[in-house]
Amino acid sequence: MAVTTSQSYDKTARQVLTGSSGIRRRHFQFSSVLVYIALAIAALVTIFPLAWMFVSSLKPGSEIATTPLGLDLHTLSFHNYTALLAAVPMWVGFQNTFIVLILQGGATMLFCPLAGFAFAKFQFRGKKFLFAFVLSTMMVPAIAMILPLLLEMGALNWVDTYQGLIAPGLVNAFAIFWTRQQIADVPNELLEAAKVDGCTPFGMYWRIVLPLMRPALAALAIMTFLGIYNDFVWPVIVTGSDSMQTLQVMLSNLATQINNSSPGTTGHDAWGMIMAASTVATLPVLVLFIALQRQFVSGMLAGSVKG
C-alpha cells in the first residue's frame, strides 16, 4: 500500500513538472514570436525610406509629386539617371570624395593604430598627460574649431584645395582611443616572448598586434569611411569652386545645379533627379557595409566579453 502511494505521488509530481515545463516552453515560444515580429517591423521601418528612394528615382517627377507612395510599373524608367548625368558632373564629386577618403582615411588607419599601440604597451614620460590631452580634444565641439581651422587654412593658402580638405582630419582622436582600448587586451606575454626572440617594436606591432585586432580595424575602417564620406560642414566651408566640391556638398546644391544647367527643368523633374543622385550616393555605403558587416559586428563587440 505504501509503495502504491509513493508511485502515485511520483506520477503526480512528474505530471506537475511536465505541465509547468510545457507552460514555460509555450511562454518562451510566444515571447520569441513577439521578438521576431518587433524585429521585422523595425527592419521594415528602416528599409522603407531606402526602398522608397530607389523606386522614386525610377518614377517621373510629376508622379513623385502627385502620388509619392504610388507604384505604376509602366512608368518606371532610368530617365532620371540619364538626365542627371547629362546635367550634373557627379563624377567630380565622387572623384574629390575618393581622393579625401584615400589620403585622409589612409593616414587615420596608418598612424592612429600606431599611436594606440604606443599608449597601450609602452611606458614613457608624459604618457598619461598626452593620452588625457588626446581625449580632451574629443570634448571640444567640432563647430567651435571651424573658425580657427578656416583662419589657419587661409594663412597657408589652402582654402579650396585638397590640402585644406584633408589636413584637419589626418589624425583622429577617437581612432587613437579606439585602437588603444583594443590593443590593451593583447596579452603582454606574447609581446615579451617576441621581444626575447629579438623582435623589434614595429615587428611586434606588425606580426602580433595587427593580426589580433583585424575585426576592430575593420570596424574602425567602416566608421572612418562613413565619417569622411558623409562629412558636409567642413567641405562646404573650405571649398568654393564647383571643381573642388565633395559628393555631399554637390548633393546639397543639386537643385541649383540642375536649374542652372537645364533652365527648362521643372521642379517635379528636379526631384526625380535628386532621388536618382541620392540613390547613387547611397550605393557605396551599402556595398561596403554588406561586404564587411561580419567584421564590423565582431569589431564592435571586441573586448566586450572578459574572461
From TrEMBL:
Q: Does the keyword Transcription apply?
A: no
CDD domains, A to Z: TM_PBP2
Annotated Gene3D superfamilies? MetI-like
Gene Ontology cellular component annotations, sorted alphabetically: plasma membrane
Matching entries from SUPFAM superfamilies are given as: MetI-like
State any GO BP term from the record.
transmembrane transport
The record's subcellular location field reads: Cell membrane
What does the record say about its membrane topology? Multi-pass membrane protein
Q: What is the protein's given name? A: Sugar transporter
- Species: Dictyobacter aurantiacus
